[in-house]
Amino acid sequence: MKKLLFIVFLLITTLSGYAKVKISGGPKVGLNIATLTKSTDNKAYIGAVAGGFLNLRFSPLFALQPEILFSMQGNKEKIWETDDWGNFVNSNFTISQKLYYLQIPVMAKFYTIKDFYLEAGPQFGILLNANMAVEI
């Protein structure tokens, strides 16, 4: 993680020294509505997303935007009991899962017309903590 931050810092300082790169940035805060797939009866978990971003504008048409975000994700799922024929009988308990991630998206932004752009890029996620609670 320290190496990645050092490489990003080195890239920013090097590019800003040799090219006419406009650098801006700021905080990023929002809500995350997450659920896990392959569940029978789950409900979405609403969590917070917070972090920051840098916008490196190389030209009027292209920019690179790395971000570092803390994201809360998870779900709440009812576990059903089945009879001998595989039919769902009743819900015995509920499992709540909370996952905390450090997400590092690196977005390439393509400006098409004024105040409109398309962005695409990879996102790297590091699981920081995971909690599971069972309600009977």
Q: What does this protein structure show overall?
A:
- The protein is mainly beta.
- Helices cover 12% and strands 69% of the residues.
- Strands 1, 2, 3, 4, 5 and 6 form a six-stranded antiparallel β-sheet that branches.
- It is elongated.
Secondary-structure-derived class: mainly beta
Low-confidence stretches: none
End-to-end Cα distance: 40 Å
The rough form would be described as: elongated
Query: Would you report the number of β strands?
Result: 6
Instruction: Tell me roughly what share of residues is in helical segments.
Output: 10-25%
Main beta-sheet annotation: 6 strands, antiparallel
Question: Helical segment tally?
Answer: 1
Radius of gyration: 21 Å
Q: Roughly what fraction of the amino acids lie in strands? A: over 45%
Average pLDDT rating = 83
Instruction: Return the string of H and E elements.
Output: HEEEEEE
List keywords for this structure.
mainly beta, six-stranded antiparallel β-sheet, 1 helix, 6 strands
